[in-house]
């Protein structure tokens, strides 16, 4: 069973006056089949956690370990992490001009699966996955993220999640910028993947809204670069009612 | 009468649509076109037509100090049946049909060559095999002149391959009879020290179709000046270009389409990728629509993809219109970069770095390559682009 273990993770970014520490000792274990929601105020370091796990070059790991089934994730390049089974659905996916969605998906699936998917079954697989996300087939011929609306970008991210079938899915503010319909469609996509029981999900969000559609097994409150409280789904309800105030004020010195 | 000058100060992209009483393209040149090098002053580098070019790297082609050596280039022409290949002296009148040199180096080439080659396709001959011209640099200095002439309703494909090392200044003329169809592929696959400056003159007869595919990969400095003129109405010109500029290379393509005849069309599309420190690509796209050229339809496009830091693009589309009675006219220029965030995105989907770059560059060129219409050339280009990427990563 796939397990992602994050232990005492410290991460810095290069700032004007030298390196600034963003993550200050994160501990978190995600097992296949589990869904963990990480919630926290803006600037608490949630997205830094997501991008550090995926290996974004902007972030420097200064301490701690991350392992996937005992393998050292931090030693891996960005593409190696993805092939090992770590998937990051990005908050702001970038445009890649000149590369069509269909070409991109196939190249990616080929890299992740280790062999090119059979063309006939692949076309069908993509079409069905797009259909479930209410995506027009013409979408496949557009360039990656070029001119996509916010909702289209997020659907495209979840489409990749469904096709690439990672062991660990990190969803970075997938709910941001979505209207209710788009949020429902995207959440249903995430739930289809979760229902296979084969993915561990790390759901990073600022709002509790998405948790009405995607029920977490665990909720963690993130403040000032680390997890300050963990609990079950009921913790989300408490955050919904009380907000992050007590963590921001109290957490800063904790 | 309104007049617009187009001299951008920036380093990337600029353009203008000018409505001019007098062509700014013509007036901004240092001297009127001439076959005699003495009619052109030695450029100092601030002239409009030279300001992007590193004169110091032209190895004397621009100031008369470059002297032809015996072993300059070797030219081999392989032509199918129905084609006449001749080597002629300077006096041959066919060498002056297509157009005059417009700058000092082209005039130097014209003033300095000794023998020229003339390739003639008889009227109504439709070739099934391409004419292949191999220009292989032998490490010396050479001045060249080539003419390719198609009789009325003839159809031909010419592939000109430049390889090896040389300092070469040349004029290449294409003369198309009425209704003739010519596709010319000029590949600049030089070794890294080569210097190549050439003017291409195409003169299109009534209803003739001319397609030019310029592909520049190699060389230290390559500066090409493809020009199109129409001798009668109904002519159609398509000018496609693809360049891949590596560290330290200067690749300059200066196009001019002179619409002085009614009901002709032109379509220009050049795309380039750049990588490495001091890779420099220059694209100048001049289109003139003169008062007589009613019914003209023209479009020109330049796209650049900057793959790494340290590269520079100067892209200047320039359209001058003297008549409103046209079918269409437009231009577009854009320079984008392949940045770390794009690379991260693709790699985060399991795609290795080299593959990611290849994906982006291949996608960038694909649309253009498909328009060439010659499968073996298309395949070769794709392979060459991949090789460029392999070499760099």
Any key phrases for this structure?
heterodimer; A: 254 residues; alpha/beta; Rossmann fold; six-stranded mixed β-sheet; four-stranded antiparallel β-sheet; 8 helices; globular; B: 393 residues; mainly beta; 5 helices; 15% helix; disordered N terminus
Verbal overview:
The complex is a heterodimer of chains A (254) and B (393). Helices cover 36% and strands 31% of the residues of chain A. By secondary structure, chain A is an alpha/beta fold. Chain A has one domain (3-89, 156-253): P-loop containing nucleotide triphosphate hydrolases (Rossmann fold). In chain A, strands 6-9-10-3-11-12 form a 6-stranded mixed beta sheet, sandwiched between helices. Chain A has a 4-stranded antiparallel beta sheet with strand order 2-1-4-5. In chain A, a hairpin with a 2-residue loop joins strand 4 (59-68) and strand 5 (71-72). The longest helix of chain A is centred in the last third of the chain and has 16 residues, at 180-195. Chain A is globular and about 55 Å long. The two termini of chain A are 34 Å apart. Chain B has 393 residues and is mainly beta. The N and C termini of chain B lie far apart (53 Å). In chain B, helix 4 packs antiparallel against helix 5. Chain B has a 17-stranded mixed beta sheet that branches. Chain B folds into 2 domains: 16-337, no CATH class; 340-393, no CATH class. The interface between A and B is medium-sized, with 31 and 25 residues.
């Amino acid at each position: 069973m796939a397990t992602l273990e994050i232990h005492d993770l410290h991460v810095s970014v290069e700032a004007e006056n030298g390196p600034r520490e963003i993550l200050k000792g994160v501990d978190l274990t995600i097992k296949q089949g589990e869904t963990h929601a990480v919630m926290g105020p803006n600037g608490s370091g949630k997205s830094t956690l997501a991008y550090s796990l995926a290996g974004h070059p902007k972030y420097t790991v200064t301490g701690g370990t991350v392992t996937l089934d005992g393998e050292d994730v931090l030693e891996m390049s960005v593409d190696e992490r993805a092939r090992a089974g770590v998937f990051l659905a990005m908050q702001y996916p970038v445009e890649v001009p000149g590369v069509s969605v269909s070409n991109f998906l196939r190249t990616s699936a080929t890299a992740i699966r280790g062999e090119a998917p059979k063309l006939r079954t692949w076309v069908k697989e993509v079409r069905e996955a797009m259909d479930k996300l209410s995506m027009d087939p013409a979408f496949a011929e557009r360039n990656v993220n070029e001119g996509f609306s916010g909702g289209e970008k997020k659907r495209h991210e979840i489409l990749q999640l469904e096709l690439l079938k990672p062991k660990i899915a990190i969803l970075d503010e997938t709910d941001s910028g979505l209207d209710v319909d788009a949020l429902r469609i995207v959440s249903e996509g995430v739930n289809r993947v979760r229902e296979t029981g084969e993915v561990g999900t790390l759901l990073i969000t600022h709002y509790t809204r998405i948790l009405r559609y995607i029920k977490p097994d665990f909720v963690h409150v993130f403040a000032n670069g680390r997890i300050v409280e963990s609990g079950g789904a009921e913790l989300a309800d408490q955050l919904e009612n009380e907000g992050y105030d007590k963590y921001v004020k109290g957490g800063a010195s904790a | 009468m309104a007049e617009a000058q187009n001299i951008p100060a920036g380093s990337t992209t600029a353009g203008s649509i000018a409505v001019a009483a007098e062509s700014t393209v013509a007036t901004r040149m240092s001297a009127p076109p001439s076959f005699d090098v003495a009619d052109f002053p030695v450029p100092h580098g601030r002239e409009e037509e030279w300001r992007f070019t590193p004169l110091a790297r032209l190895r004397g082609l621009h100031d008369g100090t470059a002297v032809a050596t015996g072993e300059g280039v070797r030219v081999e022409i392989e032509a199918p049946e129905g084609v006449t290949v001749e080597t002629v002296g300077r006096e041959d009148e066919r060498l002056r049909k297509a157009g005059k040199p417009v700058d000092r180096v082209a005039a130097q080439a014209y003033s300095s060559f000794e023998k020229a080659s003339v390739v003639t396709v008889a009227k109504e001959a439709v070739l099934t095999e391409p004419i292949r011209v191999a220009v292989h640099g032998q490490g010396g200095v050479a001045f060249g002149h080539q003419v390719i002439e198609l009789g009325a309703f003839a159809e031909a494909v010419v592939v000109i391959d430049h390889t090896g090392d040389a300092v070469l200044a040349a004029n290449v003329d294409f003369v198309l009879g009425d209704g003739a169809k010519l596709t010319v592929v000029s590949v600049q696959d030089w070794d890294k020290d080569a210097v190549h400056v050439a003017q291409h003159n195409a003169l299109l007869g009534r209803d003739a179709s001319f397609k030019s595919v310029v592909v520049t990969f190699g060389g230290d400095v390559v500066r090409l000046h493809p020009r199109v003129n129409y001798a009668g109405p109904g002519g159609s010109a398509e000018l496609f270009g693809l360049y891949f500029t590596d560290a330290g290379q200067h690749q300059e393509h200066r196009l001019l389409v002179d619409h002085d005849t009614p009901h002709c069309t032109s379509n220009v599309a050049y795309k380039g990728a750049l990588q490495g420190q001091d890779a420099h690509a220059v694209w100048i796209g001049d289109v003139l629509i003169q008062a007589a050229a009613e019914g003209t339809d023209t479009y020109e496009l330049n796209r650049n993809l900057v793959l790494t830091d340290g590269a520079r693009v100067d892209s200047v589309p320039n359209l001058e219109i003297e008549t409103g009675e046209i079918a269409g006219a437009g231009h577009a220029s854009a320079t984008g970069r392949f940045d770390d965030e794009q690379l991260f995105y693709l790699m985060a989907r399991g795609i290795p770095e080299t593959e990611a770059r290849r994906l982006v560059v291949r996608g960038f060129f694909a649309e253009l390559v498909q328009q060439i219409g010659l499968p073996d050339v298309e395949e070769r280009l794709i392979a060459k682009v991949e090789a460029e990427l392999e070499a760099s990563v």
